[in-house]
Amino acid sequence: MPTDIVMPQMGESIFEGTITKWLKKPGDKVQRDEPLFEISTDKVDAEIPAPASGILQDIKVAEGATVQVNTIVGTISADGESSAKPAAPSVPAKKEAAPAKTSGPVTEPQAGPPIAQPQASHEDEDHARSSPLVRKMAREHNISLSQIPGTGLGGRITKQDITAFLEKSQPGETAPVAPAPSAKSEAAAPAPASIPGDLVPMSQMRKIIAHRMIESRRTSAHVHCMFEVDLTRIVHLRNKTKTAFEKRNGARLTFMPFFTRAAIITLQQFPIVNASMEGESIRYHRHVNVGIAVALDWGLIVPVLKNADELNFLGLQRGISDLGERARSKKLKPEEVEGSTFTITNPGQFGAVFGLPIINQPNSAIMGIGGITKSPMVVTDDDGNDSIAIRSVVHLTLGYDHRIIDGAVADQFMAQVKKTLENWAEEVG
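RESULT FIELD:
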């Protein structure tokens, strides 16, 4: 008997989902728990595993279509079972709901599921194992995708894979040219979504982000303050201990747990910054649940490190790394992006000196981390003598809701974060 594939319920408050990509086509063999299709909800984007092993018999819901939970979206027949010719999806994609994925592991939607071929060509294999952005980069650099080992799920080639391949190439070296696509493959492959002049529908995630950003601006009285922090002590400590830290704990030592720990310590001294408004009342939260903004190739998501105030430095590093990795591989659960009380975002990883972030509702504050750069600074020694030295500097910004947080409180909060970082004395584990 065929096994029905249904739209899962990804949380009690989620009633529908949008299929953004089928990872298999009718006629393909699938293994139980193998990623089968990708969905987008108002909470998370996720990969949904196959409920059974067998052959993907048909796809009933096309990419881009939004359906209620528990809707049958396809069927899997057991190996050896005869299956009818795959029918066209019974639920067509709505044009306004079709996701526009410009990069990352999610590709643009097709008009319908591709028809299974007896033997896929190299072009078809490359198309299935990469995104429009990756294919565009390959064409621009005359690279054959067959030469690049994919590190994504199912061996898919990511933007990072092709970037690493380019960096390894010697200057002036010409990579082998990929075979020219046939007329058939050109017609079947969707055009990259980044062509100038195109009108491309917003993805489901982009619609949600747009709605929440406007909603936050309308809800909170946004004010920002910025502090310059001398991070030299921490930079030296990290450089000195990162190799031993990784060997001992099996985890990379990044700067994020330093900023997170400093924020947590200070939030416990200024509970109003960790509070939320509920009507005309203020909710003071028992714990610090830190939202860590993660930039994805196809959008932005804020997974939450629950009860972060109960974690030591090593626990913070492991928790932050785990959430980031699972956000990028679409393994987060809906409850892992809910319940934050304070948010940290890191525009500095892309070179920004500082940012003025929008508050993540219903939080009352968000801290932005700028890039760490070396700058000349006036340094005063213990005897009061001034000198100019090269120091590692970062600019931290606090965006806060002026309805409940006064400017003086926000400045005192950031001054304490600055003091904690500049005089770091905690063991890193």
